[in-house]
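Section 3.1: Structural characterization of target chains.
Under the original work plan, the team committed to producing a structural model for every single-chain target entering the pipeline before any wet-lab resources were allocated. The record below documents one such target. The sequence was received from the expression subgroup and is listed exactly as submitted; it comprises 149 residues.
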Amino acid sequence: MLKSIYITCIIGLLLCNLTTIKGQSEENVWKTLADVKFENVIDPLSGLPVQQAKFGEEVLALNGMEITVYGYLLPEKGYKTHKEFILSSLPYNLCFFCGKAGPETVMEVSSLDAIRYSDDPITLKGTLMLNVLDPYGLPYILTEAKLIK
């Protein structure tokens, strides 16, 4: 009996590792996205200092890839349904905009269908785009997002 429990645990660990290797799980993608540093540069258009994202290698490899991400919908225009919104890895009261986290914990989302606001976390699948051009935008953009759950 102990041997079968041990084998079941080993198989479970292998399956978890395969999921991580084959594609980013909802929990792991935010850990990967945390590999970004911000450096101060002068915006050539305005002449003002801004922070420019410098992405790590693993993050760069995800650019243009379909990912699955788990997080909290932060409405931009009231508590209703949205096709464009911010997704945060943290609940509303701990998010970047409340001063509790960094910009690597949020992403702009453009979804195919309107998604109803909820305090509960959601899971989305979409194409990740890295923001390398707009120093005033968020570092991550999820396009063509679909609600998974």
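Residues 1-26 have pLDDT under 50 and may be disordered.
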